[in-house]
Design brief:
By secondary structure, this protein is mostly helical. It folds into 2 domains: 105 residues, Endonuclease Iii, domain 2; 102 residues, Endonuclease III, domain 1 (Orthogonal Bundle). It has 12 helices and no strands. The radius of gyration is 23 Å and the shape is globular. The N terminus is likely disordered. The structure holds iron/sulfur cluster. The site of iron/sulfur cluster (SF4) has 14 residues, from loops. The site of iron/sulfur cluster has 14 residues, from loops.
């Protein structure tokens, strides 16, 4: 019988010395500071007061609307919530309405059964744990059933004026396509955007990017000939170098409801 080979001294050494912690390479934007400033300055002229397209009457109805909007269009959510919020615009009233009736109001929205469950569960938690008020911090908001980081960011920004970037499908696409904040996950894109967006533009940047993605830098084919940053954009998909005239856009492209 052969005895096991003694481990070499280098093997032992390798085990005893911990591998050096791998540092993430520092993120360097594809854009200069001046270019970043100019991109957001132009967005601010196009849409001086951008608005979200989800209808709501208070922070509670905003939480519900955002939670319902996962994998659904804002227009579809608005159609369902207009009637729902007339009868239930507080967590208490939502609980009184009950899951079955909530389900009836929102049955035109995808995944409505699960969403109705979450609406009731989050209303209950708001009443039981938060005195019926929507909390302001991300840590508290993500405790609510059906509320993830993206929903929490939207609520913090739109209901409480705390600047955050909620990375939806449009922002994720733009961050990567134009190399503004490339990332494999929404969290990575969010982290990079918060670094590159000039601080004084951060509050509106969330809506500017969503609306730019929805109406101009579209998923299938970006409409570069209508884009005000076509001369600065560094996207390999870009089809035009001449920026569109820089003017304020009509209300239906600012964030009016459907
Ligand atoms: S130039 Fe084209 S690709 Fe670049 S941001 Fe504008 S629409 Fe998007």
């Amino acid at each position: 019988m052969t005895s096991p080979k003694p481990k070499s001294s280098t093997q032992n050494l390798k085990k005893s010395i911990p591998a050096p912690a791998r540092r993430k390479p520092a993120f360097r934007s594809a854009y200069t500071k001046a270019e970043l400033e100019e991109i957001f300055r132009r967005f601010s002229i196009q849409r001086p007061e951008p608005k979200g397209e989800l209808e709501h009457v208070n922070p509670f109805t905003l939480v519900v609307a955002v939670a319902l909007s996962a994998q659904a269009t804002d227009a579809g959510v608005n159609k369902a919530t207009r009637a729902l919020f007339k009868v239930a615009d507080t967590p208490q009233k939502m609980l009184e309405l009950g899951e079955e009736k909530v389900r009836d109001y929102i049955k035109t929205i995808g995944l409505y059964r699960n969403k109705a469950k979450n609406v009731i569960a989050l209303s209950r938690m708001l009443v039981d744990d938060f005195g019926g008020e929507v909390p302001k911090t991300r840590e508290e908001l993500v405790r609510l059933p059906g509320v993830g980081r993206k929903t929490a960011n939207v609520v913090m920004s739109m209901a409480f004026g705390i600047p955050t970037i909620a990375v939806d499908t449009h922002i994720f696409r733009i961050g990567n396509r134009i190399r503004l904040a490339p990332g494999k996950t929404p969290d990575e894109v969010e982290e990079k955007l918060e670094k590159v967006i000039p601080k004084h533009y951060l509050y509106h940047a969330h809506h500017w990017l969503i609306l730019h993605g929805r109406y101009c830098c579209k998923a299938r084919r970006p409409e570069c000939e209508r884009c005000v940053i076509a001369d600065i954009c560094k996207s390999p998909e870009k089809s035009c170098d001449v920026p569109a005239p820089l003017v304020e856009l009509p209300p239906q492209m600012i964030g009016a409801a459907d």
